[in-house]
């Protein structure tokens, strides 16, 4: 028997348990809003987030104690609490008093859960702003009431628009510093609306506020009696960002093929849009094969159907070939499949985007080599003018045509953020250098078919009793590339081999006479020569290419164009001082005097090969000797 | 349509998506298993992500030799029950040199037995991706970290120069010797973790539940006397108190809290009224300003 007290305690505990469960299930049904704060430097983004966390009681005592201590040490408010220090978590940020990288913060009110990305204002860190914007549905654009709309306000708004954000809050901050002047607020609002009218936002809500003092952040301020709208938090709690979303067709990018044993072959992924049920007909986008869904497998049991956002494993009726990078789609609404398309690109890297250079293009699940075949225009951040450009610099935005080595399946980004986006990766550094939003496929890709020929490369080479090869001589101007190549060709020719030399200077007199020495033109120079060398190798020749070819990325691109074992990189390694001393054409003397621009080794870089197939240290060696070495090398490997 | 998913379902799907991406892109991934509540959730998610197969990677526990005894028992039991591939690594040089938290302090101990040990293990097996259970809500420098966080060949993190991370497209490319730390729980909060444990019935180490345990007060923290390697200082006495732990690490460095929360519901309700953050119980975060960022740059998880 329990005493009455104990029974009451048990009953209390049971009520409490039930209460907790009820509370948690109410939490579960809350919607989530992901938003970012952006805008120019010192507009108060971090301070605003600190204020939101503080006012929604999400700061713990130990964190508050640390904040008070930090405010004394690093704060910019003269010992008063500096809310920015709650989010500027990196040592460098606290020392410099700026935000470098995006910070993610989590808070909730009784109505909604929030993930906010606090993004940096400096132009230098635009890529980190884009990172925060890519997963957000709403942007709070801060404007300093004293400064008005600045270049970074515009840049961030354009990037937010390109990345698919449709909901904007213009937070006119530091309104206390302009004496809560309604005219200032009205002017900034009008300026922003005029500038943003073509950016395709569904709503723009302007709110006057002081993040530092809390006016209109979580409660309506008495100091702006002329403002009749909601406080920031009220607006964030109620804004409907799902908006006019219409039912999207089924898209299931295959991430991973799950094959634990011979009896099970499942395709794992997350549904990007639409829904699917057991028995539904689906099409494998790239191959066009049709089949049906047999099972939808999860750890918690099979499902009869599944919808957008769910991570599932699909088993198909038939043994069709499906690999990572494919998309299972609704048969009646298929995505585009193409190897050429037009896209918006935001560039993140110190090295500019160069048309003709090969990058790795990666979608959510697919990966392929790609080049920008045409840079159509760059967007002027201030007035949206389309400007002609030869390259895209760091933080620039432009529209490009891309050409891929093999087709991918995609939707326009405007229809589907998951299947319409991609990143570009540098092939040498592996850095993420750009982000792309696909506009539309280019149909010309579909109309040029490969003409199948009966006489093959092998048959042409066999007739000549040789193996086709491209010997790629790279090195500084005056290093001896052409001298060695010339001697080697004489030897091969004497032995009855069919050869050809593509020489940098000579090709610039004809095929490449329209190209100069800028970085963009150098990339195009190499691309054309590599393509010509490939045709010659296809004809069965041994091709000797003698080009400075200073960039690793282009030599890599040339290597990728040739067949297995056909590309032989020869590094003619002569130190800069030695080349400048030899100076056979008098170019170093002129370049050092500043008469020649973009000269390799002086004001344009030379990236030495890391693993050349042959490495010739020329100092102290006779050219004859090196040509002999190359010939022996080729003979031993059966090229001649 | 995403609105149809509950908050925890969204988080679960996101974490599973990340894990599958790693399995598809890396040649030798590993999951760091620290036995705590976040690791338990990570393990559960991995079981889900690859079902009906087992997770296609091993689980690595870096044992400092100073973990609570109950943690080690729990670890071995879970490995046996779920049948995952468990690797345990101990820095044997550290053991030989007798490194311990009492004589060498938390800084030296953590660096040698945890950070260095982890680097040793990653190098030994040649892992190119390592999952960790860190969450962005835990600490300020973690709030800044990417889901896929790049490490150089010497395991260092450069917080000022992180790769942009757009949408759900993760750049998984690394050169020889370089690696990526992957954090599938980045967007989870402490409350989400407990709620998920409750919803899914995930087993956790009993130390999270309140019980009478032998403790001493030392340096403002309540430390549990877990074995006889802990020598009492003059004036210290062992008392039996109802305590539990919000996070678990090396027992001499992990502070207990006074609590009567003996069930998951109790823990959640205690959390909802908590006025201090969970890392408050971690001695290592307070050693010096920016200490977590510094440790992370050196290769700590």
UniProtKB/TrEMBL annotation, chain A:
Q: Which GO terms describe its molecular function?
A: adenylylsulfate kinase activity; ATP binding; GTP binding; GTPase activity; sulfate adenylyltransferase (ATP) activity
Which PROSITE patterns does the record cross-reference, listed alphabetically? Answer: G_TR_1, G_TR_2
What does it catalyze? adenosine 5'-phosphosulfate + ATP = 3'-phosphoadenylyl sulfate + ADP + H(+); sulfate + ATP + H(+) = adenosine 5'-phosphosulfate + diphosphate
Supply the enzyme class, top level.
transferase
Query: Which SUPFAM superfamilies does the UniProt record give?
Result: EF-Tu/eEF-1alpha/eIF2-gamma C-terminal domain, P-loop containing nucleoside triphosphate hydrolases, Translation proteins
Q: Which CDD domains match?
A: APSK, CysN_ATPS, CysN_NodQ_II, CysN_NoDQ_III
The pathway to which it is assigned is:
Sulfur metabolism; hydrogen sulfide biosynthesis; sulfite from sulfate: step 1/3; Sulfur metabolism; hydrogen sulfide biosynthesis; sulfite from sulfate: step 2/3
Binding sites annotated in the UniProt record for ATP: 475-482
State its Enzyme Commission number(s). Answer: 2.7.7.4, 2.7.1.25
Q: Which GO terms describe its biological process?
A: hydrogen sulfide biosynthetic process; sulfate assimilation
- Chain positions recorded as GTP binding sites: 39-46, 118-122, 173-176
Which controlled-vocabulary keywords does the entry list? ATP-binding, GTP-binding, Kinase, Multifunctional enzyme, Nodulation, Nucleotide-binding, Nucleotidyltransferase, Phosphoprotein, Transferase
What InterPro entries does this protein's entry cite?
Answer: APS, APS_kinase_dom, CysN_GTP-bd, CysN_II, CysN_NoDQ_III, G_TR_CS, GTP-eEF1A_C, P-loop_NTPase
Q: Where is the Tr-type G domain?
A: 30-246
Q: Where is the active site?
A: 549
Subunit composition and interactions: Heterodimer composed of CysD, the smaller subunit, and CysN. Sulfate-activating enzymes, NodP and NodQ, may be physically associated.
Matching entries from HAMAP family are given as: Adenylyl_sulf_kinase, Sulf_adenylyltr_sub1
Question: What's this protein's function?
Answer: Proposed to provide activated sulfate for transfer to Nod factor. ATP sulfurylase may be the GTPase, regulating ATP sulfurylase activity. With CysD forms the ATP sulfurylase (ATPS) that catalyzes the adenylation of sulfate producing adenosine 5'-phosphosulfate (APS) and diphosphate, the first enzymatic step in sulfur assimilation pathway. APS synthesis involves the formation of a high-energy phosphoric-sulfuric acid anhydride bond driven by GTP hydrolysis by CysN coupled to ATP hydrolysis by CysD.
Q: Which family does it belong to?
A: Belongs to the TRAFAC class translation factor GTPase superfamily. Classic translation factor GTPase family. CysN/NodQ subfamily. Belongs to the APS kinase family.
Name it.
Multifunctional fusion protein
**Lineage, top ranks:** Bacteria, Pseudomonadati, Pseudomonadota, Alphaproteobacteria, Hyphomicrobiales
